[in-house]
Amino acid sequence: MTLTGTAPAGPRQRFDAMISGEERIEPRDWMPDDYRATLIRQIAQHAHSEIIGMQPEGNWITRAPSLKRKAVLIAKVQDEAGHGLYLYSAAETLGVDRAELLDLLHEGRQRYSSIFNYPTPTWADVGAIGWLVDGAAITNQVPLCRCSYGPYARAMVRICKEESFHQRQGFEILHVLARGTPRQRAMAQDAVDRWYWPSLMMFGPPDSESAHSGKSMAWRIKRYSNDDLRQRFVDIIAEQVRALGLTLPDPDLAWNAERGHYDFGAVDWAEFTAVLKGDGPCNRQRIEHRRAAHADGAWVREAARAHAAKQADRAAAREAAR
Amino acid sequence: MTTGTGPGTDAATAGYLLRLGDDALIAGHRMAEVVTRAPQLEEDVALANIALDLLGQARPLLTRAGELEGEGRDEDTLAYLRDEPEFRNCLLVELPNTDFAHTIARHLLFSCYARELYAALAASTDDVLAGVAGKAVKELDYHRDHAAQWTVRLGDGTEESAARMAAALDAAWPHVDEMFTADPVISAAAASGAGVDPAGLRPAWDSAVDAVLAEAGLHRPDLPPQAGPGGRGGRHGLHTQSFGFLLAEMQHVHRSHPGAAW
Ligand SMILES: [Fe+2]
Ligand SMILES: [Fe+2]
């Protein structure tokens, strides 16, 4: 991080003008320290969410009930790993590196989306995650395709295309289950019942309590408030759930013609806070899985580095001998 | 379509396709087990890719096997509703992912074999098999390169990685011969022109594997093939101890919902 310190009048004004002119900030451009810090925190958290998000569904790869579903699921989990890679690369343009960010994740010093701290006890959870969790992610992320920071915005364009594919696949899984045997139908409804409220929590705390929103809006990193995005999402799924032939577990869900939106019930923010603090059903397990993979792979990464160094030495020796 | 030379031809070809399909299915399953547990994110992507290719090979092979068998079994019936003794994969592909070196050793020895096999099968008299083989050979070129690169990195890397890679090769090596051993079904398929005699693939496999081991600074293990009871192994449906657990995990949801669609 070299381009910091007190801003000379020129660069600061240029930055402000670029933001208000809807121009993209690129890695070489001058940017305020807290703009950079905000982006690093947000992009890292997003990248961590992609890779932790591989786990809840990843544990169904070996049990997927048909070969077609197994192939689709492997491809989805692979996409999420790819999203992690794009996003860590975007974060690296801000002067941090992936290894450092992974350490922060493993030490619990950076967060990932709390949604992945919920368990996936049945196959229908794979469908519910695709439909609701990927669906909520898209609602959050489509506006990020216009985010003021170029590398993040470009990563989001690629990611959003794949997320909408995931959402359709999740919907299709539930659609088949909802039209299947009574046990399959019950499995689908149970999964939707468990994922509905946590998916609404994915948009973050209510606007009245959102800590980081103000600046992020001014910097055109964020464009819509948490509550606006949550409403947009509810309006979508309230319609889609009818096509599924399932219900959402919200007695207050009802069309409000005056507002032109669906009304919905109160989110249990105490549960959100507890899960965020680490007391959700799978917080420890998710981090432990990541730490174990990282620790088990340490000798492999070390071997790759040692081999690359030996290769470089051998090339240098050949060069010297010529 | 098969050139029908007798009532036994379709059955032999079906049995042959089952062997190929099971190899790909189980190799892919083992590879997919590593996803989310790889040493780095790039490997989660690469191993998922390989698992997808293998599954993509298994599905048309099993579907075709079911068609030729003529008993109404589709790819899912074959994958999910057969018991352990009915699986015909070679034992190498079912070996567990003890550590990353074991994954790579299995993957190297198998992909060097499967690459040569599919190159030959592109000329199969069974059009479906020839089509799968033509596509698979390109995928297996990549799998083999991927495995070779890691074998070299691990063999040449550190003392620990070299020791782990050598131990992994030792664990896999007793299962090499089985890949090159024809049983009566494989011989009949080879005779009809639908399959190939795997013994003929051995010289190309030897030179490919030897070249990788030489570059990695590793020795070819001096170990005899594993002795099966009465000479029987995976092709006869006699599997290693971990295989039952693999099937239990793979099949349990499908079996818990008889007749359901997914
Ligand atoms: Fe994603
Ligand atoms: Fe996704």
UniProtKB/TrEMBL annotation, chain A:
Pfam family, one: PaaA_PaaC
Domain of life: Bacteria
Alphabetical GO biological process terms: phenylacetate catabolic process
SUPFAM superfamilies, per database record: Ferritin-like (SSF47240)
InterPro entries: Aromatic_CoA_ox/epox, Ferritin-like, Ferritin-like_SF, PaaA, PaaA_PaaC
GO cellular component: a single term: cytosol
Gene3D superfamilies: 1.20.1260.10
Annotated TM spans: none
Gene Ontology MF terms: phenylacetyl-CoA 1,2-epoxidase activity
PANTHER family: 1,2-PHENYLACETYL-COA EPOXIDASE, SUBUNIT A, PHENYLACETIC ACID DEGRADATION PROTEIN PAA
Identification of the protein by name: Ring-1,2-phenylacetyl-CoA epoxidase subunit PaaA
Species assigned in the record: Murinocardiopsis flavida
Automatic annotation (TrEMBL), chain B:
GO CC annotation, single: cytosol
Name of the protein in its database record: Ring-1,2-phenylacetyl-CoA epoxidase subunit PaaC
NCBIfam families reported for this sequence: PA_CoA_Oxy3
Taxon lineage: Bacteria, Bacillati, Actinomycetota, Actinomycetes, Streptosporangiales
Pfam families documented for this protein: PaaA_PaaC
One GO BP annotation of this record: phenylacetate catabolic process
Native species: Murinocardiopsis flavida
PANTHER family: 1,2-PHENYLACETYL-COA EPOXIDASE, SUBUNIT C (PTHR30458:SF0), PHENYLACETIC ACID DEGRADATION PROTEIN PAA (PTHR30458)
